[in-house]
UniProtKB/TrEMBL annotation:
Pfam families in UniProt: NDUF_C2 (PF06374)
Gene name, Swiss-Prot/TrEMBL: NDUC2
Name by which UniProt lists this protein: NADH dehydrogenase [ubiquinone] 1 subunit C2
Gene source species: Anoplopoma fimbria
Keywords assigned: Electron transport, Membrane, Mitochondrion, Mitochondrion inner membrane, Respiratory chain, Transmembrane, Transmembrane helix, Transport
The keyword Cytoplasm is annotated on this UniProt entry: no
Length: 110
């Protein structure tokens, strides 16, 4: 596809069964079933080839949406880490406290 820049080609591919693919495949299948129902045909038994086609199209669109989503998150992480590397004074390490120092003493009220 043409909407992912060359920098995104180095990322690992998403899994075949990801949430966007499953969701959009379901939307494609439901749209075919709804089209059958609107045209007064048996919703699940007629146009099975269209149901398979729309589910497959939804699956591939979801796969490429996930690839673009992964590229976008990787780009944001890269930019954020670069900013942290260039401005270390804004991200100084805080002193570590124990849990007992943070929590106030407990006095039960009876």
């Amino acid at each position: 596809m043409g909407f992912i820049p060359d920098q995104g080609k180095g990322l690992p591919p998403p899994t075949i069964a990801n949430r966007n693919s499953v969701w959009l495949a379901g939307v494609g299948w439901c749209s075919a079933v709804l089209h059958n129902a609107i045209n007064h045909r048996p919703p699940l038994k007629s146009g099975v080839h269209r149901q398979v086609l729309l589910a497959t199209i939804g699956w591939f669109v979801g796969y490429y949406v996930t690839k673009y989503e992964n590229y976008t998150f990787a780009r944001l992480d890269r930019d954020m880490n670069e900013y942290i590397r260039l401005h270390p004074q804004e991200f100084a390490a805080k002193e570590k406290k124990t849990f007992a120092e943070i929590v106030e003493p407990f006095h039960p009220v009876r």
